[in-house]
From TrEMBL:
InterPro entries named among the record's database cross-references: DUF2911
Lineage: Bacteria, Pseudomonadati, Bacteroidota, Flavobacteriia, Flavobacteriales
Source domain of life: Bacteria
Source species: Gelidibacter salicanalis
Record's protein name: DUF2911 domain-containing protein
Length: 191
């Protein structure tokens, strides 16, 4: 066997072992996730907004006030902390949100949600005791948004951007609950 083929086989064997070890000890890349990863992106002119999150299913469960308790911080999805990225300075419900990447946290209540944009990026959404990893000292922005009751059930947690009436909103919906976070591009942008 020539030298090139031997090296190629060694490299392939090392890659196979590395994938196996990563899958076994870090993240099972070969099995389907119960709450799959997703990304939603909004692009208009030179503005780009993106949310990376994990989408749990309802599966017949009672969601808000039960699986997701009222008045407690929620990682706003499952698994890794949900991230929100903007390439433009924004006004979120009238408050300034500079260019950057943030983790998105919420406190669901029956009639209103509190939404936090946190400057710290966390490796996961909860700690070993299943408590949210959010550190309040890194909250840059906090707003309250009203709950909208939905007639139809949303089976899988869904985050989206809605700009149908030229009033941009970040929406979050699951079960019979929806909230809308109003956003607009700020007139003040970095040079």
């Amino acid at each position: 066997m020539n030298r090139f083929l031997k090296r190629l086989l060694i490299i392939l064997a090392v890659v196979a072992v590395a994938l196996f070890l990563y899958s076994h000890f870090v993240e099972d890349i070969f099995s389907k996730r119960l709450s799959p990863k997703d990304a939603v992106k909004f692009e208009l002119n030179d503005t780009t907004l993106e949310v990376m999150y994990n989408r749990p299913f309802k599966k017949g469960r009672e969601i808000f006030g039960a699986l997701v308790p009222y008045d407690k911080v929620w990682r706003t999805g499952a698994n890794e902390a949900t991230t929100f990225t903007t390439n433009k300075n924004l006004l979120v419900d009238g408050q300034a949100l500079p260019v950057g990447t943030y983790t998105l946290w919420t406190v669901p209540r029956d009639s209103v949600w509190i939404v936090y944009f946190n400057t710290k990026e966390y490796p996961w959404g909860v700690d070993e005791q299943m408590q949210p990893m959010r550190e309040p000292r890194y909250d840059l922005l906090e707003i309250e948004v009203p709950v909208i009751a939905l007639e139809n059930t949303v089976e899988q947690f869904t985050i989206a951007f809605d700009n149908t009436t030229d009033n941009l909103k970040l929406t979050m919906a699951w079960d019979h609950t929806k909230v809308e976070v109003p956003m607009e591009v700020s007139k003040v942008q970095p040079e």
